[in-house]
Amino acid sequence: MSKTCLLITEQFEPTADWLLEELRRRAVPCVRWNLDRFPVGSSLTFRASDGRFTAEVSTDGRALDFGSVGSIWCRGFRPSGFDAVRDTDRTFAQSESQRALDALMTVADAVWVNHPQRHLQANSKPAQLFVAQQVGFDIPETVITNDPEHARGLVAQSEGRAIYKAMSQNLNLERGKALFTGLVTENELAKLDLIRVSPGIFQTFVPKAYEVRATVVGARVFSGRIDSQTRTETEVDWRHRPFDIDETPIELPSDIESKIHAFMRAFGLVYGAFDFIVRPDGRYVFLEINPAGQYMWVEAATRLPITLALADVLAESLS
Q1: Contacts of 118 (CB under 8 A, 6+ apart)
Q2: Measured distance CA(64)–CA(52) in Å, rounded
Q3: Residues 95/86/76/315 CA torsion (nearest 10 deg)
Q4: Where do the domains of the chain lie, and which CATH numbers do they carry?
Q5: What is the pLDDT of residue 267?
Q6: Is the distance from CB of 29 to CB of 5 less than 8 angstroms?
Q7: Is pTM, for the whole model, over 0.85?
């Protein structure tokens, strides 16, 4: 029996539009489930009895048994379809819906891109640095703490050239709202007691020739160059001008690509978006991975076939 690919996403997610179009072009059986229409707008049903267990999602007039699902592209894993739910009931409804959804991590015997538990583990910045140093990446001197004295120690050790960044990033990069990486100045040092309630990342500033975004899909790595040092506003954080990537793709050194694959295996990831600094001496320094990082801006600029590679992985898992 031919299996089906399930895309777990939201209604206005353009990456899902691209991927769905490619899967349908290949005549791959697929269903899109928008979590901003769950629980209001779609349903998830489990049935259990002696010797039998089934799970089914019903969305947009289609019912899909998870026993027939061979691959899952998971853009997000948080239900948000609560517009019709009263505020007084919303917290309970969110909790119950999330617990129902979480069961799919155990029940759905499919190739996940990525499995939500793997995503959760890999999305931790301290865990990323732990694995990065294990596989042999160069990493910045780092302190992650809610102790102001430990943070001051790293800044002093860095001779005043240290940066601060948050452990989580909102996808909304609207000017004035996004929390960008920045140099730790005397003004920030005076406010360090604020980290008592919100641990932060402090790193020695690494000199840059340029930066690299490497998008990994299975065994394939797609890389682009970001010339962040050509503008003052992007010297510390290129996201001040997001999506500004060179049109010509680059090839990574073979040892860096090998370490990327070792990193991916350590976390059990199929997909990930890596960020590197390339120093003036040519050495690559690992910064982080986003296990659900956006890739459309890379593909649009470089013409790298990232969507096709994702479709390959999802389709190959159905046979």
Answers
A1: 112, 267, 268, 269, 291
A2: 17
A3: 100
A4: 4-113 (3.40.50), 120-140+207-314 (3.30.470.20), 141-205 (3.30.1490.20)
A5: 98
A6: yes
A7: yes
